[in-house]
Q: What sequence folds into this?
């Protein structure tokens, strides 16, 4: 069991949909197995969630051309497995509590550039929402199952 003494890191995540309603995922540099994830990251001091989401998305993908479709109600949490507590985030946190957004990417794919100042991804691709839970590291799987439900709610409203 993870140490309850360590706090949760405040973070954001973003579901980026293209015109085919596929979701952007990247293969992480620090975990180049066959695990992919959606863009996410921490919230800086004094930063609101929307600003943090846009900053993280740009820092990881260079994407700016988005329309926010929804700020998902509530928060999504995951706990790090014991072998990563104390290693990730300099050992300050036991997991992450995130605010997630669903956005539509409306520019040409040439805007996407993962070769950023501090690259997090080594590859990227578009996937169907139902593929997401099978691509993510195990400790984030339940969170991704919940996110897929939220994505499907948006897709139903769009048509």
A:
């Amino acid at each position: 069991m993870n140490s309850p003494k360590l706090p949760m890191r405040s973070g954001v995540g973003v579901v980026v949909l293209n015109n085919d309603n596929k979701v952007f995922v990247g293969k992480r540099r620090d975990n180049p197995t066959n695990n992919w994830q959606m863009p996410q990251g921490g919230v800086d001091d004094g930063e609101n969630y929307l600003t943090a989401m846009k900053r993280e998305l740009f820092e990881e993908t260079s994407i700016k051309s988005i329309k926010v479709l929804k700020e998902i109600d509530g928060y999504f949490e995951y706990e790090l497995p014991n072998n990563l507590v104390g290693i990730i985030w300099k050992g300050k946190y036991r997991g992450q509590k995130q605010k997630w957004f669903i956005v539509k990417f409306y520019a040409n794919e040439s805007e996407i550039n993962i070769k950023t100042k501090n690259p997090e991804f080594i590859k990227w691709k578009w996937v169907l929402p139902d593929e997401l839970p099978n691509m993510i590291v195990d400790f984030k799987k339940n969170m991704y199952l919940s996110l897929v439900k939220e994505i499907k709610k948006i897709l139903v409203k769009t048509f």
Notes: The mean pLDDT is 92. The CA atoms of residues 67 and 104 lie 5 Å apart.
